[in-house]
Design a protein that fits this description.
Blueprint (H helix, E strand, L loop, with lengths): L11 E3 L5 E3 L3 H21 L4 H22 L17 H17 L13 H25 L6 H22 L9
Antiparallel strand pairs: 1-2
Helix pairs in contact: 1-2, 1-4, 2-5, 3-5, 4-5
Length: 181
Amino acid sequence: MKVYTKTGDDGTTGRFLGGRVSKADLLVEASGDVDEAVAVLAVVRAGCADAALAGLVFERQRELFVVGADLATNPEHRDRLVPEVSLVTTGMVERLEELIDRLVAERPLRPVFIVPGADPTSAALDLARTVVRRAERHVVAAEQNAQPVSPLALRYLNRLSDLLFVLARHAADDLEPASHD
């Protein structure tokens, strides 16, 4: 099997379930951001000594594949998507919210802006958070340009960036300095 297909040499890429769009399409940008987030979370997981945290990150990586499929789908074939396999669901968003609430209850957030980078794991989580925020911005831009966008995929990205912020603070163990004196 060859890795290259040459079909994208014209500046287009295939949609999930058929059709082609420009590689400059806003949802293609968002899908690329999601792919980048998966890779940054791989860096988190590879350097993480905390098995529970690594497990949470792995679950988010898998969920991001669902988000990527949801965003990349040909809008004419959304009815063929499978919940939590290729279609973001309310349950996926709710599970993120429950996890955020539990983690914040365990360790309340400090009421200041912090300078990230207490350790490699927390720094990589913050990097992943910023990549997810970029994906969210690209999805919003696509929606504002009248492209069909899953509102649940947008909500998922928003909650995921919140979760990554909370996970980064947990990983840093309150060792990060405030952004000002």
